[in-house]
Amino acid sequence: MFVILTPATQTTVFVFSAMEFNSAISVGIDIFDIIQKENLEDCVNLIKQDHSLLARKGWSGFTPLHYAAFQGNRGLAELLLQHGADPNLPNDAGQTPFHFACRHGDVHIIHRMLKYEADVNLTDSQWKTALHHAVIGGNLFAIRYLEELGTFNFCDTDKRLLTPLHLAASTGNTDVVRYLLRNSRCQADATDNQGMTPMHIAAEKGAIEISWLLLQAVGFRNLHLKAKNGLAPLDIAKQGITFRHQELVKVLNKYSKEPHDRKPKESYGMYYWTLLFPGVSASVVFFISSALGKYGGIFCALVFPWLARATFSQYHRMNDIQRLPNPAYLGTFAAGIFHSLVCFFYKILPTIWPANTLLLVSATHFSGILWMFKVVLTKDPGRLQSAEPETKFKTIADLVDANESLCKFCVYCEVFQPERAKHCKLCNCCVLEYDHHCIFLKNCIGKNNHQFFILFIMGVAVAHLIFTFSALYYIYLKFDLHFWALLTTVISNEAWVIALAVMNVFTLVWEGWLLMEQFKVVSVGTTIYFKHETDAKQYTWRHRCRTFFTFLLEGRRTSQEKVSVII
């Protein structure tokens, strides 16, 4: 889809599909017909016969190079440039092929056009620069590439005084808005010729998350700035009829009464409620089941599957304006540990007493598990510091020249990543030797805590075994009945013990699978997210076991070959 935005949000937006574009330019024009079919060989032959075809204009003044940039066809763009196509030739709207390449966001085409003397200072008929077009396209690598040229100013406006931030708010691209607000690249309260700020535009679009970002950048005074038509952002949001507009009105109404000189603070009330809900709800269920007596087991069997479904259907982020990482999975894991410990020491152990050895082993082991749990929650996984990496790349252009993946540059942390580093959006940082983000620990697993994570999982698995066998022995000692009578009696009267034993068994199976996966990657010197180009079967079993246990004992990997990324 190709979008031509006339300046400001109060203007018309023309949308042309690729099919309409193709059909319009292909009628009676051989060069465009061949380009449409992407037949490069015929295109070369035709250009050799008539070199003037490179400057021929079709629908709306589009040249063949416009078409190649519009489609992001690198091969075609390179061919046309090599044969002398002009990257500065404008169409009827004053947009050059270079503008189209920036809007499409293909950094390789942008880079090649600059090699062929594309003029980065040209603007279209609406005074939009290449940076404006890149912002509209929404590709952060293209925006970064243009920024590194040192030619553009993020405060540059077009004919309607629209800044790049106005355009980003209009397209609803949250990542671009964050990038433009970072390091104060754009003035967050700049106004266009209608007196509209980016906040007005976000309110018009019903963009809740962008509105929150702008409130954090400017403060509550942003809500009281009025456009030339006398409307504040809240007034504009009220004119919307969609659900997102209605939700945005609720948010803006809440903050409209705050002092103008303050900024919104993150509220953690819902966050902590979500964290504690699994533990509190399980306590309520166990309390009710004990009150119901012999019907308690049936009650648990009905309620716990519903609770499990409600928990494990949660998204990784909370569904509110702040979009904080969802702690529901961490709360579930912590609740399982808490209830298992209480049940073990309060109910199971007193029944099978005397058991001095079991008490000593379990108390020591469970204390160690709680300490390890605290460590894996708080330990730095290996965050990449901005001044830390020493890579051979300094700019996006260096990556393009070396034919490397642009993903080696993190557009969120704005650093060039070394090997085996990856950005985690939930933790909002780049992690060295990234393995995965554990939603049950709400932390990444990386260079600094991978070894400890595996040891923790092993320790928790042993704790589950201790609880499960102790629960079975507890049932054996307390009830001396036939199998069927034993089954019905236990389920009815020991719902707490049975429910937790079942949960421990399921968790133990999951941990066994997780440890198998960790062995597969650690034993060949890599991580879950990164895989070796070499087949793991080339390693002997003895070598893999030695590598795995070396990692557990020393925390270092013995294999440093290059890795390939799972996409």
Order of strands, main sheet, comes to: 1-2
**Rg over alpha carbons:** 31 Å
Residues in helices, as a percent range: 40-55%
**What shape does the CA trace take?**
globular
Find the count of extended strands (DSSP E, 2+ residues): 10
Strand content: 5-15%
Number of helices: 24
Mean pLDDT: 86
Uncertain regions spanning at least 5 consecutive residues? 1-29, 560-567
Could you give the distance between the termini? 25 Å
Sheet with the most strands? 2 strands, antiparallel
Q: Which structural class should the secondary elements be placed in?
A: mainly alpha
User: So what's the oligomer here?
Assistant: single chain
Write up what this structure looks like.
With 567 residues, the chain is mainly alpha-helical. Among the domains are: 151 residues, Alpha Horseshoe (Serine Threonine Protein Phosphatase 5, Tetratricopeptide repeat); 187 residues, no CATH class. The protein is built from 24 helices and ten strands. The strands form five sheets. It has a two-stranded antiparallel ribbon. Strands 3-4 form a two-stranded antiparallel sheet. Strands 5-6 form a two-stranded antiparallel ribbon. A hairpin with a 4-residue loop joins strand 7 and strand 8. Helix 4 runs antiparallel to helix 5 and helix 16 runs antiparallel to helix 17. The longest helix is centred in the last third of the chain and has 29 residues. The relative contact order is 0.06.
